[in-house]
Amino acid sequence: MAEQSGHSSIAFPALGAGGFSFPPNEVVKLLDDAVQSYDGTNLQNIDLIVFNSDNITLKAIQDELKVYHSQPQPTSIPAPVATRNNVQVVVKQGDITATSSRAIVNSTNRFDLSGAVGKALCAKAGRSIVQECAYGPISQTPNFRVTSGGNLCQYIIHLNTPQNTGQLENVLKECFREADRLGVNDLAIPPVGTGGIGLQSGPVAKCFASAIDKFDKTNPTNLRKITVYVFQGKMMPDFQRELLNPASQSPEMFNGIKNAVANGLGRTAATSETGESRTKQAPKPASILNTNSSLAAKESIRILFCSWNATAVNKAFDAVQEIVVEISITKTIKKEAIKELSLEEEQKLVSITKKENVIIEKKSSMELTIQGLRQDVLEAHSQANEIVYQFGKALQTSKYVTWKYVDQQDSTSKNFSIQANDDLETAFKKNEKETTKITTSFSGNKVELKIDFSKMEATNMTGSITSKLERSVDSQLPSTWKNMGGQQWKCIHVSADSTEYQTVLQMFHATMRNSNLVRLDRIQNPTLWRQFQAQKGKIEKKMQTTNVTKQLFHGTDEETCEKILQHGFDRSYAGRNATRFGKGVYFAVSAKYSNQYTSPNAQRERSMFLAEVVTGAYCQGNPQMSVAPMQSDGTPFDSVVDNASNPGMYVVFRDASVYPTYLLWYK
Fold this sequence. Notes:
This protein is of the alpha+beta class. It has five domains: about 10-70, no CATH class; about 85-250, Leucine Aminopeptidase, subunit E, domain 1 (3-Layer(aba) Sandwich); about 250-395, no CATH class; about 400-475, Signal recognition particle alu RNA binding heterodimer, srp9/1, CATH 3.30.720.50; about 490-665, Phosphoenolpyruvate Carboxykinase, domain 3 (Alpha-Beta Complex).
């Protein structure tokens, strides 16, 4: 009957061993024979319920198991796993090059792939990554360089492993953050430092645990799984002890309850043999994003707790409630793109609630929350975050480029959807010669289109409709800028063999010939750029000339760099280095002069900005100035200088008067 009804589990007592006084050993044997002969497909769990005080029946069960199941059963032992709030940690013994992870970490201290892991990666990924790591990494800092994964994976993060564990934790956190920024959801990493460097596995494992815990608390958006590949078996206990928290593993006696709850808790109930019961209805799912979508609840289950007294029932009920709380979580996604989500993206989120059995709510214009069982939420969060991220990326693209098609029905130009607009721009920038296919709304219908960029035409798959394409670019943003990928600002590595790099290098070496330029980043911050262009246009109009700006240097420390990259040059920093010519932000014609105001980081590298500054009309500055003085026409000067006849230093008092064009790292 249970099989025919489609049930997956059933529980029953030791039938006949009670009031009918059947011999317990015979009852158990009959039950076991019935279970062994069952050949259905629906029932997965068959449980026999016995009171704790029924020692005779319990012994009969134990004896039966010894007789009928004395042979060892084949088992498959998975790699140990521990799940934090956001990140799943796996510890494996084996070859890291056999991983299926999207990104692999290579431990090195010279970025030359000469170590054991580096050589193994080269053998699988190809020798091209050696040149890429040395001369053209995708991204880099003093602590890592990122290259493609060649034939092995999508990315390889080459980690500059420190010589001691004192710095290892911070380096690991930086590595995890970079993987998350790259959109990687699964990272494979060796026990860095335990090879050629010779660090002890115990302290290294502690660094791993601390770095992962702290990274997990930052609520990463993409990285969901970190697999530690331990090659030497003797190191396994250290990494298992530190990375896999045994306290998080539930006692075996609760496994059945946990599985039942996790397989669809719609309503829990506790019932005693005296008829007493306690029932808790699961919360009704709320609608999301102001739509009528809601949680597609799985089949409810009912848990019965049997006991001679109500106290035991209550205690068991409370224990299950604690388990429910333990395996349930809420995750949050906070992004500006949420407030502009299209109907198409909202419908995608609705489908996630049904597929993963979670509740998604729009708490504010820029915040989504996802509630449900832990594994369901983690999976739903990953999917929803990807939807929001891709839409944010497409939204950013739409701010500087617009793709249109000519509607054949009314001969008017119409915009593609935001996502299709991004797809088109991405393909266009790749200079794809062959026909590109996209799915979008076209002439009132959702269709798949073939795009021919050489003719700037779009044709439906049947070939019955062909339309001309139009591409317009927002002139406010430089055409050389790369796609922002939905980010508010971004540093783009400038290749050393480009004209752009050589131009900046020539300016820098004019006074810093003996310095080595380690890295050059172009800064892309649309908000700061538009503010700067508005201020620049205002001064150009006032002075009736376009010659109102200069390329000037500004030296600073590593900590301040991050603030400038995000928010631009802030006058509140004035006084840290100099106020000799006014309480503003200082810029020098000479890189050598700005070098005085830099300080080396842990890698002995210094940082300096090359900025475009609206210098406009200027005058002599002095220490008392907190704003620029007035000109004879009643408008303020645009900057003040150290020497009015031959300026070597410019000071500005308006934050929008400067745009940080490049960030130089040098030694």
